[in-house]
Write a structure and sequence with these properties.
single chain; about 50 residues; mainly alpha; 2 helices; about 60% helix; about 0% strand; plastid
Length: about 50
């Protein structure tokens, strides 16, 4: 049974790329939540977009 390493970086629509996209999206979401908790404003208000 072959075990693929899905953490290796490669270009294109691969399982490794999707894993990295998911991880980065989770980090970004947590950063947004922490920013809102610290500042007491929404991210759009914090960036002066709204």
């Amino acid at each position: 049974m072959k075990k693929d390493n899905y953490n290796l970086w490669s270009w294109g629509f691969t399982k490794a790329a999707e894993n990295w996209n998911g991880r980065l999206a989770m980090i970004g979401f947590i950063a947004v939540v922490i920013t809102e908790l610290i500042t007491g404003k929404s991210v759009l208000d914090f960036l002066a977009i709204l």
